[in-house]
Amino acid sequence: MLETTDERAGMPAVSATQGRNAGSAGTQRRRAGRPSAAVLDKAGITTAALELINRKGYDGLTMAALAKELDVAPSALYNHVAAKRDVLLLVEDHLTSLVDVSGFGPAPWEEAVRGWAWSYRNVFAEHTPLIPVIAVLPVTDAPQTLAMYETVSKGFLDAGFPQERIVSSIVALESFIFGSAYDVTAPADIFESGSMAEATPHFTAAVRSAEGQVDGPPADAAFSLGLEALIAGLGALREQRG
Amino acid sequence: MLETTDERAGMPAVSATQGRNAGSAGTQRRRAGRPSAAVLDKAGITTAALELINRKGYDGLTMAALAKELDVAPSALYNHVAAKRDVLLLVEDHLTSLVDVSGFGPAPWEEAVRGWAWSYRNVFAEHTPLIPVIAVLPVTDAPQTLAMYETVSKGFLDAGFPQERIVSSIVALESFIFGSAYDVTAPADIFESGSMAEATPHFTAAVRSAEGQVDGPPADAAFSLGLEALIAGLGALREQRG
DNA sequence: ACCACTAAATGAACGGCATTCATTTATTAG
DNA sequence: CTAATAAATGAATGCCGTTCATTTAGTGGT
């Protein structure tokens, strides 16, 4: 269980220990045995993992590298997480807290969903390796994620959604969002058919004709198109508010 | 170099060709050096990889296991693929050829898209570890995938879609399909909020009320809902056919 | 017919990875 | 005071993808 890694509540949490690689100098060895003040906690592990991911990407996120970042032996991490997967979970839950749900309540439903969806996609476009983890993640293990669902559910309910369709609607939107997050990371020339171009005339022509007139990144055009279709289609499920 | 040191001396001149793992018995060692008839090719590697995946899942798909399946030393694989990623690519392209595009042409656009999307999702729901690979995969490297795009593009064009919106529309649908494929693999109790239930009343209520009345798997309800919304929304882009 | 080159196999390595275990030391509960 | 527990080290394990030297077989040029 993740034990809310919420930093709003707990403060920096990492601070506690001056032990953090403060001195640029030679990180002198800590002697074996339990230290007087704990060096590690979940919040600190989360912060270090994010720092590492930002600096080296997900390939650079290894248990050894994470331990080094925290100035600790790799095996020490296993007193706080059962496996690397738990580290990814901590990161995932933290990132979810960055998703903007502020539109639900003040703004009309369409606008709230639009803002939430773009924000959600943008956050995870930088963290696609987490998506396979999220997909199978029981919400119990991720308090921030659960909080997001609560806010969004309430927004749907207040907008007049029939209760029994809310979860399916959110799942449909999320599926689109996760798939679209991958799309952001695709190389620009992904659709260049190269030597096979003659064999695929219609597709090649479609790619060419789309190239000319994109406003922003091509992934944004597809995301906008699909999102607006989903908002319109799902919005039709709403009932008159009593 | 003279053939002075004949190692076969001890062996009773194993008549060249029976070397293939003919005998069900103990797969006797192939001697080093290039064999008269090539043992490996891409089709064989693809088939063996699929067999392995079906039997042991993606965790069981290791280069060593694949080599064993093909009765070959692991390093032999690298004469045919540059890296494991290439094996995944071969599998991906094969699977794409299983996606049903037969609706495009005979059936009306809505129905064709519906059939294609369900088929596409069902194929890759069993192969979600490939999704990160597909997402970044230049189509040049996957002829079957390119063929699918060609068929679908033509279907959209014939249905009256403006050429410059076809690629974005397909990408939007694909994003939804990939995200939904993950959803299929999620455990049934993924949304049980457990101990946090009181803190998330609206979400918990929504989950409860959806539980009672599902026809099939919950993932199917969300997929259907989103897909119909996308078909309706994207279909509105069509122009009158000239 | 020779010879250089390339292609396709073996088998022995390599470094990196997540994880486990025995051990040490400190704190906490009874 | 003492037993249990918590949190660290450090050594070791096993697997994984990949590389390299070597062996053998086919191929193309003169």
Largest sheet of chain A: none
**Unreliable residue runs of chain A:** 1-26
Global outline of chain A: flat
Largest interface, C-beta closer than 8 angstroms, per-chain residues: A-B, 74 and 75 residues
Could you name the CATH homologous superfamily of the largest domain in chain A?
Tetracycline Repressor, domain 2
Give the oligomeric state.
Answer: homodimer
Q: How many beta strands in the DSSP annotation of chain A?
A: 0
CATH topology of the largest domain in chain A: Tetracycline Repressor, domain 2
SS summary, helix count of chain A: 10
How large, in whole angstroms, is the Cα Rg of chain A? 22 Å
How far apart are the termini of chain A? Answer: 39 Å
Order of helices and strands of chain A: HHHHHHHHHH
Secondary-structure map:
2 copies of one chain form a homodimer.
Chain A: H1 7-10, H2 42-56, H3 63-69, H4 84-96, H5 109-125, H6 131-135, H7 143-158, H8 163-185, H9 201-212, H10 218-235
The first copy, chain A, binds a DNA duplex (30 and 30 nucleotides) through residues 29-36, 38-40, 62-64, 72-76, 78-80, 83-84.
DNA-binding region (chains A, B): 62-81
Domain HTH tetR-type (chains A, B): 39-99
Keywords (chains A, B): DNA-binding, Repressor, Transcription, Transcription regulation
